[in-house]
Design a protein that fits this description.
Elements lengths: L1 E3 L10 E5 L2 E5 L7 E5 L6 E7 L12 H4 L9 H16 L6 E4 L10 E8 L5 E6 L6 E3 L8 H16 L14 E8 L6 E7 L7 H8 L5 E8 L11 E6 L4 E5 L2 E5 L12 H10 L8 E5 L5 H7 L4 E6 L2 H13 L5 E5 L2 H10 L6 E4 L8 H10 L3 E6 L2 H13 L2 E9 L9 E8 L11
Parallel strand pairs: 6-21, 11-12, 16-17, 16-19, 17-18, 19-20
Antiparallel strand pairs: 1-4, 2-3, 4-5, 7-8, 7-10, 8-9, 10-11, 12-13, 14-15, 20-22, 21-22
Bound molecules: S-adenosylmethionine (SAM).
């Protein structure tokens, strides 16, 4: 054991220690704490906090130091808000002085989607959990503080049924067994619940008995078997079989109803979706004559919200399942001024730039990797008046804002929205306006 006093942390709450000319990161610390570090393992780890920061909160999650899903579970939510706010300002205030942060009203049990991996327990019960951070060791989790309480309770009941019918979890090493993952999506407003059992191929001995038993559980509205024989960390495979119900859930956001299929993206924080979209649209200043591009549109949620203000909205998304949902979502909500395209966002916008299409507003909400330089260059060519960049990764946002500034876009404001309380992740809405006066500048796509 070795004691370290008055430690300083980085954004991820790691403190750097130096032992015998080597640097190590100790996780789950807070600023100015005195800590005792266990030096006996392969890597030094936090053994005990001797003098705690007053904002340390230890009554959180029992899996906190092993599961790795929640990097910020060991602090009060007030501290977390300040910590995230400070980080965003440090990272992004070079683009705009106007950096703010919108906290969540529900820092726990906000996730509408959960996906867990199966294995046998020591007593041969079927159990599921999350991989320990940076490893393939499974931590069995019975009560995740981020997942909806409905999903937590449901999964325990499902696992009892799976054990009763001796459904064999898939063994990654031996490459035998059936059941790989469970994926649950809960409609917080509609109370609809989808259960997807992911199996290693189509064979699922005991399937009909399991389905019969699952249907006795209150709340499940649809059951799907997804086939995923690939050896990857991606949970869902391309093919599936609906075992009961519609194969999707519906969820309400504001006044709109959305169809969500298993493979389609949907914002995971049910309490935060409306707030995120309200912030984004309040900064877009869409006029009734505007043509709006909603790039990386998922099931068309933003497109449908934006359609109320615009002449026309075009949603583009690479996932065909999501676009199939988006088209139905437009019909369900009686929206006729949106059209959707299955396409890579960059390829789509580059084509629009070649055709010199009129686009007045671009809203983009790419995955964590951010957008592409070609996409941003095509935006610069078409010169939409306003760009709203919704990002779930401030690092790639920063990279892309530099590219946007090269295309003469000025960042007017950045709003952090806490869509992922108790974790290090932050959603941001950046508002950019086109600033160049000269229209004669020579440009090519
Ligand atoms: C963060 S989600 C945003 C979805 C939607 N805006 C929402 O709020 O629900 C990113 C979406 O981008 C899609 N996507 C990923 N790569 C893409 C690409 N190259 N072109 C178009 N869409 C892509 C994903 O399938 C996913 O639906």
């Amino acid at each position: 054991m070795k004691e370290f006093k008055n430690v300083r942390i980085n954004y991820e709450c790691d403190t750097l220690i130096r032992v015998e000319n080597k640097n190590y990161q100790i996780h789950h610390c807070l600023d100015r704490e005195d800590i005792l570090v266990d030096m006996d393992g392969k890597y030094p780890t936090l053994f005990r906090v001797i003098k705690a920061n007053p904002s340390r909160s230890e009554d959180g999650c029992v899996y906190q130091n092993i599961c790795g899903g929640c990097q910020f579970m060991h602090m009060t939510y007030d501290y977390e808000i300040l910590h995230k706010q400070k980080y965003l300002k440090q990272l992004l205030s070079g683009f705009s002085e106007n950096v703010s942060f919108a906290p969540s009203e529900h820092p726990l049990h906000y996730r509408n989607k959960c996906q867990m991996t199966y294995q046998y327990s020591k007593s041969k019960k079927v159990v599921c959990g999350f991989y320990e951070e940076g490893s393939h060791r499974l931590v069995t989790v019975e009560n995740c503080l981020l997942q909806s309480t409905e999903a937590n309770e449901l999964i325990l009941k499902i696992n009892r049924i799976l054990s009763q019918y001796k459904i064999e979890p898939y063994d990654e090493q031996k490459k035998v067994g059936v059941l790989k993952h469970i994926f649950v999506r809960v409609g917080f407003q509609t109370k609809e619940i989808m259960v997807v059992l992911v199996t290693n191929g189509e064979i699922f001995p005991g399937r009909s008995q399991v389905v019969k038993e699952l249907l006795k559980i209150k709340g499940i509205t649809t059951i799907v078997q997804n086939f995923n024989a690939r050896n990857t960390s991606i949970v869902l495979g391309e093919r599936q079989k609906i075992l009961s119900g519609s194969g999707f859930i519906r969820e309400k956001v504001g006044d709109y109803l959305f169809k969500i299929s298993p493979q389609s993206f949907f914002q995971i924080n049910s309490f935060g979706i409306k707030k995120l979209y309200d912030i984004a649209l309040s900064k877009a200043f869409i006029k009734p004559t505007d043509i709006v591009l909603d790039a990386y549109c998922g099931v068309g949620t933003i497109s449908i919200f934006a359609a109320a203000y615009a002449k026309k909205v075009i949603g583009v998304e690479v996932n065909r399942h999501a676009i199939a949902d988006a088209r139905i979502n437009a019909r369900w909500n009686h929206i006729s001024n949106v059209e959707f395209s299955v396409n890579d966002a960059t390829r789509f916008l580059t084509e629009q730039a070649k055709n010199r299409s009129k686009i007045d507003i671009v809203i983009l909400d790419p995955p964590r990797e951010g957008s592409t330089s070609a996409f941003i260059h095509a935006v610069g060519f078409l010169k939409p008046r306003q760009v709203i960049y919704i990002s779930c990764n401030p690092i790639t946002l920063k990279r892309d804002l530099i590219l946007f500034s090269q295309e003469h876009y000025k960042v007017q404001s950045i709003t952090g929205v806490d869509m992922f309380p108790k974790t290090k992740h932050i959603e941001c809405v950046a508002q950019l306006t086109y600033t160049e006066k000269s229209e004669n500048k020579k440009k090519s796509v």
